[in-house]
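We emphasize that the prediction below concerns an isolated chain of 181 residues; any contacts that depend on oligomerization or on bound cofactors are therefore not represented. The input was used exactly as deposited, without trimming of termini.
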Amino acid sequence: MRLSPLLPLVFLVACSQVDNSGGPPPSGDSVSFVDLDLPTDFFCESMADDAVMVAVEADMDALFEACFPLAVIAGEARQPWLDLLAATDAEDALVFAVGSAGGCIGDAWIEDIKLDGSTLRPWMLKEDSSYGRNQVACTADWGISQHLVRVEGAAAADSIELTLGVFNPELPGAPDRPAIL
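Result of the prediction step, given as a token string:
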């Protein structure tokens, strides 16, 4: 009886397991959030895998400065953000989150947001087709996945920490994609 030379590889793949769930969610209590459309032409290329809370106009100005350090954002560009802030209840806040993308990195989304004491903890999941695999070549293309949400009760938080979960959509155990993507 002759065994296939691929048998050890098949055994290795079948018996090795990787946590493909996106990892554990951050600690805290889940809070409600609603996805919002980003104001047009807003592309924050200076942030990657990070989140910012925007509760007042000064937070918005800090976000603009971080995203566009050499530009003055005025007039028409500011108005959509001011409108979003005006439509946000005083106890709520906007959260702007950015996930890096490109190469083997696919879509990213905010899966959940937790309030842990005074820290807001968004949980962003990112698809990565190289995760859980060996010797995968990816292009060096780079991009970002931007998300803006309105979070109930977020104004009570005084800090924000993004938890990033990575998974391979092509392997078993991957989270379901939300319908909005």
